[in-house]
Amino acid sequence: MADSKASLSIDGNVVAELPILKGSAGNDVIDIRTLGAAGYFTYDPGFMATASCESEITFIDGDKGILQHRGYAIDSLAKQADYLEVCYILLHGEAPNRTQYDEFKGIINNHTMVHEKLVHFFHGFLPDAHPMAMLCGVVGALSSFYHSDLDIHAPDQRMRSAHRLIAKMPTIAAMAYKYSIGQPFVYPRNDLNYAENFLHMMFSVPAEPYVVSPTVARAMDRIFTLHADHEQNASTSTVRLAGSSGANPYACIAAGVASLWGPAHGGANEACLTMLNEIGSLDRVDEYVAKAKDKSDPFRLMGFGHRVYKNFDPRATVMRETCHEVLKELGIQDPLLDVAMALEKVALEDPYFIEKKLYPNVDFYSGIILKAIGIPTNMFTVIFAMSRNVGWIAHWDEMLGQPGQKIGRPRQKYTGEINRKFIPLSER
Ligand code: SDX
Predict the structure, then answer these.
(1) What is the fold of 4-51?
(2) Can 363 be counted among the known catalytic residues?
(3) Over the stretch 53-76, which tens digit does the pLDDT of each residue have?
(4) Domain 74-402 belongs in CATH node 2.60.40.1180
(5) How far is the CA of 306 from the centre of ligand 1 (A)?
(6) 226 Cβ inside 6 Å of ligand 1
(7) Rounded to whole angstroms, what are the CA distances from 298 to 104, 285, 290, 294?
(8) C-alpha dihedral sign at 161, 165, 171, 175
(9) Residue-wise pLDDT tens digits, 351-372
């Protein structure tokens, strides 16, 4: 429903009347769908000002540092809900009552194991394969196990895929870790909650009992929640685009895993810890801040800056509190946290960062917490992917449930050669 119109005039001639559409919050959008007929495309590399879809799942206000899932503020969810509740909210739009929560938890528990044949996919990887490479390959391979009984236009079958993916991601992620350290895979235990089960599959060994630390499990669950969804970020947009062609949801999620792996996106938490280790000590912080400001130096402060947040990332605020809680409760003095705090202080006071509105983002503190709870650095982005999996699948499901859903097919500004005569090789 158009609330008002934008007139596009070129050299004084109106070439298009474009409806302006209002959402329930955030920027109004200019509906440009008729612009092609007028002989024009919009040009927006990196999609800096492009709304690619209509969604009810997550709202971000980058200037005010607001993040809400189905209208619920992220700090309330992180502190008062667990990750499975957040999964239910993202998928169904409402907070579950006790019966709905218990039923949902029971369904997820029924899907935590993977087919025994899936185990063999791991043995094709070299021992030093990056866990993200394994996650990408094995999640994609899930397509081959469920392709036949999957009608993506049937809501109940889409929801069964969502349940399978939410349930199996921790199992597969832990298997990637176990394979990388040469230990036996650990089966899930349905008497444990989601975060406890993941830690059990990651760290228990057949040789001795493993007791999950409640502090670590609570921190893990909060990290899952803080990474669950984030509007139309690069990896979610990747999943939507892959899903728009009707591709199998497991293949779409594998595409999301691949996109998230980049250091500009989900790979930033691993890159941030690598950077803190490289900085190493407080007396080198200024040197690295100078590098980050030097235009001739490609170095960037990992964990700083955001396409949308031009204020503090609200997840970083919760993550910072959690970071201090976990280190205190576990009695850990981490010199990297001292370096991180010094980096944060310098960056927040430095005119370069203030002018460019570069604040610590969600990845800045998550790496330090994950390190504190014993997660190896090369598993950081795997954990991000495990968390974001529910956001990806919620957007995939929402898109396929929308009337008139079309395959995504952007156009371009062509700057190459045109109408060249081809000379056969024999004559060249
Ligand atoms: C995530 O989209 C999402 O929602 C993502 C995410 C999610 O939950 O899905 O929030 C998760 O990906 C968080 C971001 C993690 N990435 C990093 O921490 C990597 C470091 N940060 C960046 O590379 C960068 O800030 C981005 C990629 C996050 C955002 O880049 P933009 O919006 O394209 O901005 P830009 O690259 O055009 O930078 C604007 C200016 C530039 O300077 P000028 O050319 O204008 O002079 O700011 C500078 C950049 O050089 N800049 C930085 C910087 N980030 C941007 N300078 C130093 N250090 C940095 N980290």
Answers:
(1) Rubrerythrin, domain 2 (2.20.28)
(2) yes
(3) 999 999 999 999 999 999 999 999
(4) no
(5) 5
(6) no
(7) 46, 17, 12, 8
(8) positive
(9) 999 999 898 888 888 888 999 8
